[in-house]
């Protein structure tokens, strides 16, 4: 069962700031892009209409520790790991590395998302749909 | 009747790029911010729920000519003018100036937006609601 | 001596996502906007050219806990507090509240920034310039 | 000699707005991404340090006509064509199509960029470096 996913992308000009590096807020967009690609790899969309009622995944916690900058046209990998799986929430860890220097971690992030349904205009936490939950495993703690 | 509106804002760090200036795509966010403040000044929101059925305003044309750059912490004015008013669409012109040098135009933009309703998941152009249309006038052509 | 700062802003359309709420990454832009306004209130820019050599402030840690969503046109306050002051770094806490419901916290964030100089293309941590350090105090722990 | 380039990408969640579609300003980021990939395909970066003195490419004109919306997870193609080549500037046209419906144009954009050098803190237009200019051709007008 899958507990990790990797995407590779290249820094775009519009993601840099006047310090010449990727603006720190964009690392959170990169994390989300990896999460959504992970969902697609399981046959789901994060806008989960394949289950009834449809569920959404608002973020309740996000964090990132920055070690080295990313610059324009750098190719980098976002390695996502499922680090916690509860009945109504998931937590992921994200490790950023440049393709040209895979031994140096650029940044490490974390996201916690909650599974919710919308009824009568109100959002409430709900159990992760079984067909999705069945496919997600927590990564082994011994992973380097 | 109003045909113009002005907002003043200050360039934020996250709006700059590695060239040290405001990324060109952000001028389109600035234009939209001026348009929405104009709507609010008339007692409406651009997410127009005050009329039945609610209407939206997708953009069908956007353009900008850039003359000088804007930099971090520059204070600038966006001067919006209504330049065309049809039964189902509006066109605006936007003039950007630094507060510290109001005689030099930084950029000039244009937006055309269409009034639409959503029915059965489909979007179709509709007449601008009367209470809003009654309040909007086209700016005189002689405006410098 | 100042240990806090507040800014008020209004959610812009371009800051929302298809879930109808402010995209979670934008809270980090809001935090930074508050930090930069705090610096300006002390007579400094975060692009600190008033000292020799000039210093910059890369982020080494960022986090946010989300409790309630912010929506288009919501007016909200970002209340920034200095929670740690070391010789070469500062940590801030940020409390988000809607102007219309000031008793409910929308989100709470944290940033740690390091003071750096650039020499020969390399970035290295440096002591916070005295004229700036002299003006910044740590907020009392008893603050509600 | 190359006069066109195509990239394919997928709409990300953070690129949508509360109307459930890609925010109109993001089409300008997509155009730029295609331009930069075109430069890379020629062995150059748009941050052109391979020539002496280095040159930059500020935008002087940008426009877009929007025909249909793009939604989350849509795969789309940006087809870039060089439509004008002057000694100091280039103009491109951009045609947006969904991969799933290649016969319908989603949007059509245009960019004009100027080749500049920076000297003593001032930016001035300069002739496009020969090694780059030699590789770029104007697309035939008969292209559908």
Walk me through the structure.
- Four copies of one chain form a homotetramer.
- Chain A has 144 residues and is mostly beta strands.
- Chain A has helices at residues 26-41, 130-133, and strands at 4-10, 59-66, 75-85, 89-98, 101-114, 116-119, 122-125.
- In chain A, strands 1-3-4-5-2 form a five-stranded antiparallel beta sheet, covered by helices on one side. In chain A, strands 6-7 form a two-stranded antiparallel ribbon.
- In chain A, strand 6 and strand 7 (122-125) form a beta hairpin.
- At the A-C interface, helix 1 and strand 2 of A face helix 1 and strand 2 of C.
Record keyword descriptors for this entry.
homotetramer, 2 helices, two-stranded antiparallel ribbon, mainly beta, 7 strands
Quick take:
The structure is a homotetramer of 144-residue chains. With 144 residues, chain A is mainly beta.
Secondary structure layout plus pairing:
Four copies of one chain form a homotetramer.
Chain A: E1 4-10, H1 26-41, E2 59-66, E3 75-85, E4 89-98, E5 101-114, E6 116-119, E7 122-125, H2 130-133
Antiparallel strand pairs in A: 1-3, 2-5, 3-4, 4-5, 6-7
Mean pLDDT of chain A: 93
Considering residues with a beta carbon less than 8 A from a beta carbon on another chain, report the largest interface and each chain's count.
Answer: A-C, 22 and 22 residues
Number of helices of chain A: 2
Rg of chain A, alpha carbons: 16 Å
Oligomer: homotetramer
Structure summary, number of beta strands of chain A = 7
Structural class of chain A: mainly beta
Q: Helix and strand succession of chain A?
A: EHEEEEEEH
Characterize the main sheet of chain A.
5 strands, antiparallel
- The dominant shape of chain A is globular
């Amino acid at each position: 069962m899958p507990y990790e996913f990797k995407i590779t992308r290249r820094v775009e000009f519009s993601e840099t700031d006047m310090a010449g590096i990727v603006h720190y807020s964009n690392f959170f967009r990169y994390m989300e892009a990896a999460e959504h690609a992970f969902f697609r790899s399981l046959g789901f969309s994060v806008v989960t209409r394949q289950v009834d009622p449809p569920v959404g995944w608002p973020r309740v916690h996000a964090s990132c520790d920055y070690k080295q900058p990313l610059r324009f046209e750098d190719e980098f990998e976002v390695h996502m790991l499922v680090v916690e799986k509860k009945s109504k929430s998931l937590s992921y860890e994200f490790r950023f590395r440049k393709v040209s220097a895979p031994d140096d971690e650029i940044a490490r992030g974390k996201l916690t998302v909650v599974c919710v349904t919308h009824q009568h205009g109100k959002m409430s936490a709900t159990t992760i749909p079984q067909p999705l939950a069945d496919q997600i495993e927590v990564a082994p703690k011994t992973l380097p």
